[in-house]
Amino acid sequence: MKHTYQLIVDYFLLKVTLKILKVSPKIWRMVLSAVTGALFSFYIFLPPSTFLMEILVHLLMSGVMILICVGFKSFKFFARAIIALFGVTCAYGGIMTAMWQVFKPKGMIINNSVVYFNISPVILVATTVLGYFLYMIFSKIFTLSSKEAERCNITIYALGKSVGATAIIDTGNSITDMMSDSEIIIGDRAV
Questions:
Q1: Helix (H) or strand (E) run with residue 4 in it
Q2: Per-residue pLDDT for 185 more than 60?
């Protein structure tokens, strides 16, 4: 029963990770990946291991979940996806631990860096869903504010070549180069 709820938690952790990565895999791949993550929660029953071994096992599990969910597109994307899922999972664990510190529920067990809360499954699922919707709301707010910023087309010249790009005009941050005090452009490496 508890692993069913772990499946739901893993599903939402994947959803957040996929939003960060800006990819949309098929639903069956997400569910299969979440099932794999839920099965990983049995890791809590193994004897405790070293901190380094726990990190490696969690990174390996993140890699397996990413492979199942989105496949292997490139080494760079794969590494970024593993780090994103690992980071989202750590953030979720941190939030749950903070909730434990504030509300002091009984029955918290940590083994092999797997946190088990003996709390109502309804509370676990509700806080997971609430966290996901809060992420979505904040994501929309920040996306809307950047879309409203004034945009312009720019051309960058270097070494006798040029490339065009779209830029957002600084609307109050007044970002400047600290050495020359001239305006700077922050761009994606792909440009």
A1: helix 2-21
A2: yes
The answer for residues whose C-beta is within 8 angstroms of residue 88's C-beta and 6 or more apart is: 13, 16, 17, 20
**Angle at Cα 10 formed by Cα 139 and Cα 100, nearest 5°?**
80
Identity of residue 49: S
98: left (phi over 0), alpha (psi -120 to 50) or beta: alpha
Two structure tokens written together for 112: 């092999």
Query: What does the block give as tokens for 5?
Result: 């709820």
- E strands, 70-149, in order: 108-111, 114-117
- pTM here is 0.62
Please work out, in degrees rounded to the nearest 5, the angle formed at the alpha carbon of residue 16 by the alpha carbons of 171 and 13. 150
Q: Which amino acid is at 169?
A: I
Residues 115 and 134 sit within 8 Å (Cβ to Cβ): no
Q: Which two tokens stand for residue 91?
A: 């953030």
With both helix axes pointing from N to C terminus, report the angle between 75-103 and 121-148 in degrees, rounded to the nearest 10: 120
Q: Can you tell me whether residue 23 is helix, strand or coil?
A: coil
Instruction: Specify which residues 162 forms β-bridges with.
Output: 157
Q: Are 102 and 112 contacting, i.e. CB atoms less than 8 angstroms apart? A: no
pLDDT tens digits, one per residue of 103-141: 766 766 665 556 666 667 777 778 778 878 888 887 777
